[in-house]
Design brief:
Layout (H helix, E strand, L loop, with lengths): L4 E11 L4 E4 L2 E4 L6 E12 L4 E5 L6 H8 L7 E6 L2 E2 L3 H5 L1 E4 L11 H11 L4 H14 L15 H12 L6 E5 L7 H16 L3 E6 L2 H5 L4 E6 L2 E6 L1 H6 L2 E9 L3 H4 L8 E5 L2 E6 L2 H13 L3 E9 L2 H14 L1
Parallel strand pairs: 5-10, 5-11, 8-9, 9-10
Antiparallel strand pairs: 1-4, 1-6, 2-3, 6-7, 11-12, 13-15, 13-16, 14-15
Helix pairs in contact: 3-4
The protein binds adenosine-5'-triphosphate and magnesium ion.
Length: about 325
């Protein structure tokens, strides 16, 4: 089966306006090479039919750039992409795409229902059908009671949900969402997550961006990790991060604090609280050795956890790596 979204060598170089810099009395116009920013570099990826695919990366990684290229809002400098097997800009493919932009502009004075009907008109949906779809989608995203309320009275979470309803107006096969959970509280995040999971059940393909691990962790079949415009990793999130166990946490009970001191030099950290002690060690063999000595001394094992790296730590490690390079 052909991928639903496929990019090959996708590259975007933004050219900034002339930048005149003054150093005291010296005026410098920066050379063209200094004025270019590589926002996306040789991105190859493919999203399969029916999957929820997460495009993850910190601020400035190139997520929005990628999604805007796919939506035909901006053009790539190099490379190509296909949606539903069709080249970028194809009308039929566009008719099967839904999009929630990063900063959707909302018409404050329209009600939720009017807003959706207005977009339905832009899609060319006949008026009777427009009204029917607007109501069905308001119901689906949990805004039935707010249908006749002006958008200026909507909370951030409600706006994000009406934006999602807008992205679904044309009953698209592929839904592209740019940071659908940004700025939402835990309840709002969960609501959007459940809606995304529901889309997969309907057989839609969802391609969304996020910079927050937990948003992706619970829903994504696969993720791509972008950093500085480059694809750093691709696959199942559990495989990507479990490959990088950061440290081992040993929690034991029944060892006097004075006895614990002997492991302090070998451990990364030793934390004592009431009658429990947590010993954190980086290397697995060292962790196992410490554990067996503790048990030899009569300690009761409470837990032994390999702690895998979080996405946040992964990003931070990338930043440090680049700084040291
Ligand atoms: N119109 C533009 N002109 C110049 N540079 C731009 C433009 N749009 C984006 N960039 C730069 O391209 C890089 C990637 O930006 P992009 O918006 O794609 O990142 P992002 O991953 O979506 O980040 P965020 O999490 O902050 O939304 C950044 O360095 C950004 O400053
Ligand atoms: Mg963005």
């Amino acid at each position: 089966m052909a991928p639903v979204v496929e990019t090959v060598g996708l590259t975007k170089i933004y050219t900034l306006d002339f930048l005149d810099v003054e150093y005291g009395r010296l005026k410098v116009r920066l050379r063209p090479s200094r004025r270019q920013r590589v926002a996306l570099k040789d991105l190859d990826l493919s999203v399969e039919e029916g999957e929820i695919f997460g495009l993850l990366g910190p601020n400035g990684a190139g997520k929005t750039t990628t999604l805007k290229i796919l939506m035909g809002i901006i053009f790539p400098t190099r490379g190509s992409a296909k949606i539903l097997g069709r080249p970028l800009g194809d009308k039929w493919a566009k008719a099967n795409l839904g999009f929630l932009p990063e900063n959707p502009y909302f018409y404050d004075y329209l009600t939720g229902r009017e807003f959706l009907k207005y977009y339905g008109q832009l899609y060319g949906i006949p008026w009777r059908e427009r009204a029917r779809r607007a109501d069905a989608l308001l119901e689906k995203v949990g805004l039935r009671d707010a249908a006749n309320l002006p958008l200026k009275g909507y909370s951030k979470g409600m706006l994000q949900r009406v934006g999602l309803a807008q992205a679904l107006l044309n009953d698209p096969r592929v839904v592209i969402l740019d940071e659908p959970q940004s700025g939402l509280d835990p309840i709002g995040r969960k609501e959007i997550r459940d809606l995304i999971l529901g889309l997969r059940e309907e057989g839609k393909t969802v391609f969304f961006s996020s910079h927050i691990l937990s948003d992706a962790e619970m829903v994504c079949d696969r993720v791509a990790i972008l950093y500085g415009g480059e694809l750093k990793n691709l696959g199942k999130l559990s495989d990507l991060l479990s490959a990088r166990i950061k440290e081992y946490e040993i929690v034991v009970r029944g060892i006097p604090p004075a006895v614990l001191e002997q492991w302090r030099p070998r451990a990364d950290r030793v934390l004592v609280q009431k009658d429990e002690a947590m010993i954190i060690v980086r290397r697995e063999n060292e962790a196992r050795e410490i554990l067996s000595s503790l048990q030899g001394l009569g300690a009761t094992l409470v837990s032994f956890n390999p702690r895998r790296e979080t996405l946040e730590e992964y990003f931070i490690a990338q930043v440090r790596g680049e700084a040291n390079a």
